[in-house]
Amino acid sequence: MQDRPAARDISQVSFTLNGQPVSVAAAPFASLADTLRSELKLTGTKIGCEAGDCGACTVLLDGAQVCACLVPAAQAEGARVDTVEGPGPDAVTDRLRTAFLAHGAAQCGICTPGMLMAATDLLARQPFPSRADVEDAIGGVLCRCTGYLKIVDAVLDAAGATRSDPGRPNTVVSPSNHGLQDSIALRQAHGGGIGQPIDAMCTPVVGARMPRVDGWPKVTGTDAFGADAAPAGALWMRVVRSPHARARFALGDLAAVVTRTPGLVAILSAKDVPGENSFGIFPNMKDQPVLAPGLVRFRGEAVLALVGTRQAVETLSDAELPIAWQPEPPLAGIAAALAPGAPALHAGVTDNVLARGNLKCGNVAAGHASAAASAEGCFETAFVEHAYIEPEAGYAVPVGPGPDRIEVTACTQAPYMDLDEVARVLGIAHARVRIRPTACGGGFGGKLDVSVQPLLAVAAWLTKRPVRIVYTRTESMASTTKRHPASIWAKSSADAGGRLTAFEMQADFNTGAYASWGPTVANRVPVHGMGPYKVANALLRTRAVYTSDTPAGAFRGFGVPQAAIAHETLMDDLALKLGIDRWAIRRRNALDHGDATASGQILRHSAGLPRCLDALQGDWDAALARVARHNASSPRRRRGAGIACMWYGCGNTSLSNPSSMRITLARDGTLTFLNGAVDIGQGSSTILLQIAAEALGLPPGAFRMVVGDTDLTADAGKTSASRQTLVSGNAARLAAEDLRSRILALANAGPAASLSLEGPKLVILDGEASRTIDLANLPALSESKANSRAEAQISTAVLSSSKHGLADSIALRQAQGGVEDSVVVLEGLGTWDPPTTALDENGQGIPYATYGFAAQMAEVEVDVVLGTVKVLEIVAAHDVGRAINPTLVEGQIHGGIAQGLGLALMEEFIPGRTENLHDYLIPTVGDMPPVKTYLIEDAELDGPFGAKGVGEPALVATAPAILGAIRHATGARLTRVPVLPHRLWEALRGKEAAQ
Amino acid sequence: MVAYYRPASLDEALAIRAARDVMILAGGTDIYPAKAARAGWGDMRHKDVLDISRLADLRGISAQADHWRIGALTTWTDLIRADLPALFDGYRRAAREVGGVQIQNRGTLAGNICTASPAGDGIPNLLALDARIELASGQGRRLVPMTAFIDGYRHTVCRADEIVTAVLVPRPATPARSHFLKLGARRYLVISIVMAASVVEIGHDGRIGAARVAVGSCSAVPQRLGALENALVGQLVAAAPDVVAPIHLATLAPIDDIRASGAYRRHAALALVRDLLSELAADAERRAA
Ligand SMILES: Cc1cc2nc3c(=O)[nH]c(=O)nc-3n(C[C@H](O)[C@H](O)[C@H](O)COP(=O)(O)OP(=O)(O)OC[C@H]3O[C@@H](n4cnc5c(N)ncnc54)[C@H](O)[C@@H]3O)c2cc1C
Ligand code: FES
Ligand code: FES
What is the pTM of this model? Predict the structure, then answer.
């Protein structure tokens, strides 16, 4: 029969794109999202799942929001398509951008285009929406960073609606709001990128609600994430992964497949890895192969890499490859791996225990014996997926014939660690590797381990061609690390006054198939496991256990959130047994200035937990009263309030983790901040700039930024462990102070002098005296210094000064031959390493320079018939030392709370079963309660301007506060998370049966 | 390479359907996720596609003398915005709770029943509405009652040469009201753990003249609860929730999965059906007042 109209392989699709007619040759079944990105090169539309689950690809099709990943290109024919690159109907999208920037509604920015388009759809139809309307409109877009609150605020603001919606207030009680938000937002609104000097408007800079320096590209869709760019002609790679959790396999004739598959260039297997076929976080635990050598240890492990044209690698199915599998029984979960007679999963680790940690102080037996009350319990937590909306992606380029060097451009949290791994798997010197981080669409610990980097490097090295890869959502979820599931027993005792007399914990963590960060979890938990309380007698033991499950690694908190569920539940138990209010028992035990921790560290400053609790007291009392009133007349929908405390050491546990920063001043007056700390959305680029600007005494707008390129910036360490504000912040402060002192010395000026920079003229005002240094007359630093530093070539790098100035800083142009006008004449260097000491065999010592503290309160409503939980409000008091940028700090807190809520109520990764974002649930905008924030500033004297970290602390207290609230509402003491409706129902039924 | 057909008329579409092994594509909201799930594990194959989105006649809702005709391409958003009587309140409520707005704007009502997922939110509603499904092929058209349309787990009676062209909803003899409740573990974008839909015809005396109640996600195919429906007839609507007993749900066969346990589902279905009826009763009372 004749096909009419004919079946079409590639056809011309014509439509109106952002008001302009376009015509593009596209495969009709290719998605509109793919067509926009690949054919029309509009990469503002993001792809996070290709399944309608994340909404990152949201565009308007004939004025209605749709997921562009679900629309066949063919159906765009004749339609009107609006994307983030356009102004939107009546410039609505443009209005929203400005509001998003001012509110801090974009963190990593990967969800931002989708959010903007969903909100555009709303405002175009409904100019004055309510908060509920906004939630309905953006309900189909997931954000993993922000906790949504600032996004909703921004949309309402753009709509001109009042922000004081009585339904869901978001109060911020912050001591350091300098009221600069509006003036800066105003500048943005008038098109003045913050690349242009903000001058005096931002003094003091520390404490200002400055919009993120990298924000403008995020709200315009021009920020380049891992999947957004690659050299023309790059080959594509697709990884073939094990469908079995534990198996051996044999490979047939791969060369024959390459020969018969058009466009396929290579199929790589373990034997092709030129260097060591292994990677891992710790030098002595590099146990994960790049490509499995005939044996796989988890479902999703990389077996082969197909390299070729996109068409070739996306057409060849795994089933067509000669792999003969021999599955073996997997050891799923900790119990199976520890069972007597269980096979060893790794040679040399006969008991499957990868690492152990411990802490011992005093005498727990005596402590328990002397107590008025004791409580104990067993607690279980699940694998938790990071669910950053950006799946891993990037490309590698071989440089020079040979090749001489390899450059890997990918999303990452740890460029220098990536560099180590790439050098190792290629078997080449470190100097031959360059890592160029892209914008990172969320990390949360999941992008600390390498994923695409070694695979890309091997493929590009061997084929001598650029190679790119974009993980699918399924692949990202199945193959990358998770939060460790924990199995915890703990016992806590207190005297009649509620003061802790002993704490004991035995915690096992499922570290999955490979080591990754298992030892870190095993070491961090003993320090924190008793909670932020004074206790003289403690005994904590941890194990990280190998299993046949997905590798567990770093995830916001390294085991501490799991442990917090145990210690906070026991705290509530003790309060109940002793008849003490739950707030009061915590206040009585809270670590304060001068107290010793269980590891024997005296907290000399910045221990603000008592202040956090005091801030919450009024809310707590009010909540208890409110809940009691409600419950008096509501037998089915019961309310409850819960409270929890946390602490978290900033930086690595008793390990050196220095950061180095550099600030240069060039002959033409270019002030460049060379910052190796990657900003994964949390805002380090902005925070570090604020610190540097304050310490140097020049406005943030005077700086150009070079961020995280291993050829251009020194090692700032990884973006994890809540360390960048503290550690890199200090390095930035020191670098700025160094530069400042050199300037002052040149001008012979005193420490109070003020600086200003006008082109190559540096003006130093010291009291009445004013001096001008003409930078053009200074000798180049490289001339003046005999030994040129390894990173001296940095001086040849300048930033493209586009219209967005600073904002576009990451897109830097490296001038090969040196650019005359940017010859560096002055520089400031700063390196800082937190002062810690090694822990002895009892875990005694100084593991961290400082700790973040917090207390959070949750109010929930439980439907006791259905077992469903709605979180009504969270009140969070966080001691952050000093809020360098309150907007960003609140953003971290909101986002952490959203993840804590997910941990408590819905998130459970099950290998093989929840490898997508519809079976694995993270909170949507409708699940997020209003949050009231208290920022407590108990200055950390070792921190930059008193600051310490908040990234991980934000999350830790939320889940236990919610569990406490559920218990208060229903009497059910839940010890397993997530509290899915059926689990709560079972617990309630069990309680009924017991009565 | 996947062959892609996008005809402009139903006849052409039916001819292609008869001649080739093609997968029908309407809104694509089920097809693309399924494709991504397979590709995620290295299955890159896909059937050829028959895109029916150009068949404009298949879109929209029209009121006929004794029924409403809902064209196969009608989307959830179309349903939300259509001018329809209270009979459709439950179905429309389901529409508002499907996915997020993006999915509502694209997903079609026919696509939802053709996917035939046990958790398809449209299905219990169409069971309760006593709908009939219209299928067309080169041989002509046929009507299949909704109760017979889905004949197994994710399987329908739609033949390889057929296309679903419409969903027909009969006008009830007496004015009827409907309601729908969905239980999921989060607010938006959530697959139902259990859902229930009901249509009741209530006489002037406040007694139930006819009732249809259906439950989803508790069996391979969403089911009507015949025993309950019979028990409800003649009852005062205010007493309806108390009529519901576990025995009425005996035909359900809920399973344990990642979202819930079977035991919980059975319990939740009972609770949801009771809630559904009490909200309908409260609504009737409000109207009477
Ligand atoms: C993120 C997300 C959330 C979702 N949430 C929900 C939810 O909450 N509740 C819910 O019920 N569903 C949900 N869905 C599923 C989906 O949106 C619906 O089932 C939708 O209505 C399917 O319609 P469609 O037009 O998109 O179908 P398509 O994907 O185009 O087709 C679906 C199936 O039906 C067949 N088909 C379509 N039209 C016809 C026809 N006229 N004749 C014969 N066969 C046909 C196709 O061949 C295919 O097998 C969700 C989907 C996504 C991606
Ligand atoms: S990429 Fe389209 S919804 Fe996730
Ligand atoms: S800002 Fe929303 S996902 Fe990162």
Answer: 0.95
